[in-house]
Structures are given as C-alpha cells and as structure tokens.
Write a structure and sequence with these properties.
Elements: E1 3-7, H1 12-23, H2 28-41, E2 62-68, E3 74-80, H3 86-93, E4 101-103, H4 104-113, H5 124-140, E5 151-156, E6 162-168, E7 189-192, E8 196-202, H6 204-207, H7 212-221, H8 226-245, E9 251-257, E10 262-266, E11 272-277, E12 280-289, E13 295-299, H9 302-313
Helix pairs in contact: 1-2, 2-3, 7-8
Length: 319
C-alpha cells in the first residue's frame, strides 16, 4: 500500500512522477522530494520556488520544511534567497543532530557550504506581477497581499514509512523577513509514520495560531479518519477565530494516514488538491460546498484543467 497527497493543482506533475516512483518501490522521501522539486522548478507557479512572487522589496524569500515520519526528524529553512529547491536544503538539515532550522543568511551559508545550486529566483514574469500590483495598489487602494498557495505534501511508501514537506514563497509583497506557518512544525506540517501526516496552506498568520497539522495527526491517532480529522480541526478552529477575532483567514489542510486513507478540509471556495494511491491514479479534486455549507469533492473536469494552465501561462503585459 502507498499513496501521496498534496495541496493545489500545481502539484499534479510532481505527484504523477512520485506516484510512479512509489509504484516501483521507491522510498517515501525520494518520491516526496522529487514531487516538491517539480513544483519549485516550474516558473509559472507563482507562489513556490522559481518564479515565486517577491516581497515588498522585490526579493524572493522562500520557506520550506521536511519531516521524516519514522524518526520525527525535521529540517526547515525560512526567508532564504537565491537558492533553488529549498525543500532539498530542508531535507539535508533534517539529518543534522542540531541546528535543524535555519533562516536568512544562515540558511544561505549552509546551502553554499553543502553545494546546493545558487540561482536568481526572481523571474521577469514575477517582476511584471510586482509592478502591476504596485500600480493597482496606488490606483485602486488594493491591499498588496495575495497569493499564498503553499505546496504541502504527505506520502506513504510500501514499507509503511511516511514523510511530509512544504515549500512556498509566502505572501506576495510581504515584509522582508516575514515567515508564515509553512516551515513551522505542527502548523505547516506534521507526520508520524505510526499514525499519518498533514500539511497546510492558507494564511500563515492564522494557521499557526492553531497548530492544525499536528491537531489533525493527533485526531487521527485518537481514531478519526483523515477526512473526519481534517473537518473537525478546520471547522473547530475556523469557529474559534471568528469568535475571538471576528474573522478567519484561509485555512486549507490535507492529510493521509498510514493506511493510505486521505482527507481534506478548507474554509474557502476554489481549493484544489491532488491524490494518488495504489487504487487511484493521480487525480485533481476540487472542494465544493452545498447549500448547507457542507463540503464535498468533485474531480476536476478537462475544461477546468485546460483553463488552469492557460491562465497561469498566459503572456503578461506590464500595465
């Protein structure tokens, strides 16, 4: 038995490659790193890796994390600049006895010392997004923040081992040095091979108020299915935030247990995720809500899939 689940449609190509690796008997860590790197390397996904949208100073700062479900080892980098594939740096850090989370210049020095690829992560396309947004903010008084689609993944291999990872460029036009939930253990991710794992995407400042990834794993340990655990954790915390603060930011989480069962819950319209298991080819699901506010899943249509890529790869013009 094996499986892999990820946030957002952008994970499909990586999931497809990882699915084949898992079918061929690869370990969960190699399959997972391959899947996340595929997202990081594709410049048209503007919230992760190369082509990620910049901060307010037009610099691309990346966050990523890695967790081994067998040993509970964790590695993470935050606000790292000019290095490709931060998920690979995070994986390497998870093998260190201490100093497992590095930020900014310290993370960059570590990456250089260990031979990781140095790369200018700011693309011409991202510069156009930046300049257009600056003009919109000035003319329409829009808030600059938008785009915080973290890729988060959990997988299970045939030996019963599990791993989890996240990677993101964070909020568009965030303050320099801002870090969200993605590299924070228990908030952006958590996995235990004896139970299961979960990862998050959304507004980091609200996600890390609830440690939702850990909460989902805890609920699965108590016997809830991944779907039940996701719905309870997200639903309960959405209510808490609205009661305490008057509103709740975007909260979207996915989970998989050590049986290959999976789940997803969100408080927003338009969330998508990707799943592949022994009995399910890599599939993109859309989260929908009925008239009573109950969520359900619908497989993405060919038209939706075509429009998704067409929109993201369409030529940009500076306004």
């Amino acid at each position: 038995m094996f499986g892999i689940i990820a946030t957002w449609r952008m994970a499909l190509e990586g999931i497809t490659e990882a699915d084949q690796m898992l079918r061929d008997g690869a370990n969960c860590q190699d399959a997972l790193e391959t899947a996340v790197r595929a997202v990081e390397d594709f410049e048209y996904y503007k919230s992760v890796g190369y082509g990620g949208l910049p901060n307010e100073e037009m610099q691309v700062e990346l966050d990523a994390a890695w967790m081994d479900g067998d040993t509970l080892s964790i590695g993470a980098v935050a606000a790292i600049k000019d290095y490709a594939n931060p998920v690979s740096i995070a994986r390497k850090l998870s093998l260190e006895p201490v100093n497992n989370m590095l930020v900014g210049e310290g993370a960059e020095k570590y990456a250089h010392k260990n031979g990781f690829e140095r790369k200018n992560m700011l693309t011409e396309r991202a510069k156009i997004h930046y300049h257009n947004r600056m003009k919109e903010v000035k003319e329409l008084e829009l808030k600059p923040y938008s785009g915080h689609d973290t890729v988060g993944m959990v997988d299970l291999d045939m030996d019963g081992s599990m791993a989890a990872a996240t990677s993101t460029s964070g909020l568009f036009m965030k303050r320099a040095g801002r870090v969200g939930d993605s590299p924070i253990s228990g908030s952006g991710f958590y996995v235990d091979s004896e139970v299961g794992g979960a990862t998050a995407t959304g507004l980091g400042e609200d996600l890390f108020k609830g440690c939702l990834s850990y909460e989902i794993v805890r609920l699965m340990k108590e016997g809830l299915t991944p779907q039940e655990a996701c719905e309870k954790a997200v639903g309960d915390f959405d209510e808490v935030l609205k009661k305490r603060r008057g509103k709740a930011g975007d909260l979207s989480l996915i989970a998989m247990n050590n049986k290959g069962e999976w789940g997803c819950a969100t408080n927003i319209e338009g969330f998508s995720f990707v799943v592949a298991t022994e009995n399910l080819k890599p599939t993109v699901f859309l989260v929908k809500f009925d008239e009573n506010g109950k969520q359900y899943f619908e497989e993405a249509s060919d038209e939706w899939m075509e429009n998704y890529m067409k929109t993201r790869t369409a030529p940009l013009v500076r306004k």
